Amino acid sequence: MTHADSDRVIFARNPLDMIAHAHAVQVQMCDAMERIADGLPDDIDRRLCAQVAACLQFDLPLHHYDEESSLFPLLKMRALPDDGLEGILDRLASEHSSDTDFASEIAESLEVLGQGKKSPNPDMLGYMLRGFFERYRRHVQWENALVMPLARIRLTAEDLDALAASMESNRRQAG
What is the pTM of this model? Predict the structure, then answer.
């Protein structure tokens, strides 16, 4: 084994399993956002606010990048015309953009709560949280119901290797 090989991290699982796991974590994040919204303005779990803020700022954009830079192009290359996937992937990528922007705004407010400060407008924050987690739950359901099953059918072993390598590279760059 060369030195370069020893520095290389290999995913222990199929990269599609890694994406499915990220989706499960995102649903948990939505559940946590709902708990935060339900507790506003006075029943605030500071630690939970900080955890959700970190997820929104770091994990979510990285996951979106994995899908848009690697998974979606591979699927577009392998999908059959009858799959009807191109329009779906374009819509999901568009949602990623708006979700990432919205997540950043929410994360700033959650960081304030995580520091033990009060929200200047708890009603607005509750509205923002609910709007985000309701929409994002639907987004994840779409990906799980439409994209992931086709990815498991259409992607080749070489595609999965390329996806794993891309995800690994994305994490090294983000880390």
Answer: 0.90
